[in-house]
Amino acid sequence: MERAALSQLGDLLRLHHTELGLADLLIAGTEYQRQAIERARWETPGVGEPIAVLTPEDVIVHKLIAGRSQDRADVEAILAAGVPLDDDYIER
């Protein structure tokens, strides 16, 4: 398990599942992070129990906060995929 910094008030753990691949586990430390987790959708990845997955809007916001070049590229990929987004939520 790899630990990746999220902020001084929250934490992000990178997990690797042998069948499903990489996943980030968000441990909320700020009000926004708690809100993002509350907004998460429950999805079943094909095997096992359902897991909470951040909305595309919250993934974008987290990546914009992190601001690394890979995060910016990830945001561009989400936008290029044409996923319907709540632009007002992202701007707030």
Summarize the structure in short:
This protein has 92 residues and is α+β, with helices and mostly antiparallel strands. It has helices at 31-39, 56-66, 69-80, 87-91, and strands spanning 2-7, 10-17, 21-27, 41-43, 51-53.
Largest beta sheet: what is the strand line-up? Answer: 1-2-3
| Count of runs of 4 or more consecutive helical residues | 4
β content, as a range? Answer: 25-35%
What number of domains? 2
Low-confidence stretches: none
What's the Cα radius of gyration? 13 Å
The main sheet comes to: 3 strands, antiparallel
Number of strands: 5
* Multimerization status: single chain
Helix content: 40-55%
Shape designation: globular
Please state the average pLDDT score: 86
Helix-strand topology string: EEEHEEHHH
Structural class: alpha+beta
Q: What is the straight-line distance between the termini?
A: 33 Å
What key attributes describe this structure?
alpha+beta, two-stranded antiparallel sheet, 92 residues, three-stranded antiparallel β-sheet, globular
How is the secondary structure organized here?
Blueprint: E1 2-7, E2 10-17, E3 21-27, H1 31-39, E4 41-43, E5 51-53, H2 56-66, H3 69-80, H4 87-91
Antiparallel strand pairs: 1-2, 2-3, 4-5
Commentary on this structure:
The structure is a single chain. The protein contains four helices and five strands; from the N terminus they run E-E-E-H-E-E-H-H-H. With 92 residues, it is an alpha+beta fold. Strand 1 and strand 2 (10-17) form a beta hairpin. Helix 2 (56-66) packs antiparallel against helix 3 (69-80). The relative contact order is 0.12.
